[in-house]
Design a protein that fits this description.
- The chain is an alpha/beta fold and 351 residues long.
- The chain contains eleven helices and twelve strands.
- The strands form two sheets. The protein has a ten-stranded mixed beta sheet, with helices on both faces. Strands 6-7 form a two-stranded antiparallel sheet.
- Helix 1 links the parallel strand 1 and strand 2.
- Helix 1 packs across helix 10 and helix 1 runs parallel beside helix 11.
- The structure holds nicotinamide-adenine-dinucleotide (NAD).
Length: 351
């Protein structure tokens, strides 16, 4: 039995998350997987019911689930300077240390390249991103008005666990190849430590291969021949940039799912935001959220040795591929005319 939280988020989150739950329920029913679902307040609705966008009741409940669906948060429209209106820092709170982002092209959908199938892992608890590198403060400071200083942190533990997660994913894929992206010849200590840990972990996965590519060359190789990459692992800021580049290779936000993983739990979260411009119109593309839910099932299934969850994930992937190939029930951003609920229902029917 898996326990999965449902956090709808704001705006189109209220539309794409329910479709994702329907699809996951259908896949679970088809494979005999038992899931206990737990809807939890977050975002604007959390504020309406509990006076906070990250209610304490939600944080407490999340400690006891295996994973959760996190819809997008429309935090840009929240009142400023009010501590009850925050973008819920769930990634940090639950130490979800890696952001996993697959980038996949489909033959009949427009994209810059065909035959792309990459999974990016970006370390997200350290590196250069100011908020994540320090316990208090921001990791940036300005000693006088002429000088600004930012810190970059790499730890053996942080590098080792993201490298390990990359090899664990690579092992489940046909090519079994990990590309570690860094710039060790220049950043001898920080990138050096990241590279050392990747090499160390690689020795534990003799069935996989490790290659190392410098980040500037990687930016170019991704644009020119992305087909050569399988699993790509890198530090926070490099990953921030490369994952967006990756999404751009295959059609952008509509086709950009994601999973934030920790030691014990994972959070399914699409790359796109809450899209207030199209919210409430039943036109949002549910693909990214649905495929994020599929990733959650697959990851939990492998972690917990629950084959039915892995099978349920496979069913979702096959159903999505079929609906895309048939091209009869696609939302308008994918060139179709279907609504969010029609596309969701078509995927359920294909399952
Ligand atoms: P956005 O991703 O919400 O939207 C950018 C554009 O892409 C819009 O034109 C939108 O209509 C379109 N789009 C996004 N998702 C789509 C989908 N599923 N189907 C069809 N079209 C889609 O980015 P934004 O407009 O910069 O941000 C909107 C809000 O979301 C802001 O409050 C921002 O702070 C927030 N945001 C939240 C997250 C998150 O919670 N993970 C991520 C990014 C932005």
């Amino acid at each position: 039995m898996l326990k999965i939280g449902i956090l709808e988020g704001d705006d189109i989150g209220l539309e794409v998350v329910p479709e994702t739950v329907k699809v996951m329920k259908a896949a679970a029913a088809a494979t005999g997987l038992a899931i206990e679902w737990q809807p939890l307040p977050i975002g604007r609705k959390g504020h309406e019911s509990h006076g906070h966008t990250m209610p304490a009741v939600t944080v407490e409940a999340l400690a006891h689930v295996d994973g959760w669906l996190q819809g997008p948060i429309g935090h840009n429209a929240y009142p400023r300077n009010d501590p009850t209106w925050i973008n819920p820092p769930l990634r940090k709170k639950f130490e979800l240390f890696a952001s996993v982002k697959p980038v996949k092209s489909y033959p009949n959908l427009p994209s810059l390249h065909k035959d792309v199938d990459i999974v990016f892992l970006r370390e997200v608890t350290e590196g250069m991103q100011s908020g994540s590198v320090v316990f208090a403060g921001t990791g940036e400071f300005r000693p006088n008005d002429e000088v600004s200083i930012g810190m970059r942190v790499v730890t053996r533990k942080g590098a080792n666990r993201v490298a390990r997660a990359a090899f664990e994913i690579a092992r489940t894929r046909p090519r079994k190849k990990v590309t570690a992206v860094h710039k060790e010849p220049v950043f001898r200590l920080v990138c050096g430590m990241f590279a050392e840990e990747c090499r160390k972990v690689a020795k534990e996965f003799p069935d996989c291969t490790l290659e190392e590519v410098l980040v500037d060359g990687m930016a170019m190789k991704l644009v020119m021949r992305p087909q050569q990459f399988d699993v790509v692992v890198t530090t926070n800021q490099f990953g921030d940039i490369l994952t967006d580049e990756g999404a751009g290779l295959v059609g952008g936000l509509g086709l950009a799912p994601g999973l934030c993983i920790g030691e014990r739990q994972a959070m399914a979260q699409a790359t796109h935001g809450s899209a207030p411009d199209i919210a409430g119109q039943n036109i949002a593309n549910p693909y990214s959220m649905i495929m994020s839910g599929k990733m959650l099932l697959e990851w939990l299934g492998r972690r917990r040795g629950e084959q039915r969850a892995v099978d349920a994930a496979q069913r979702i992937e096959t159903a999505v591929e079929r609906v895309i190939a048939e091209a009869k029930h696609l939302t308008r951003d994918l060139g179709g005319a279907a609504g969010t609920t029609e596309m969701g229902a078509a995927i359920v029917a294909a399952i």
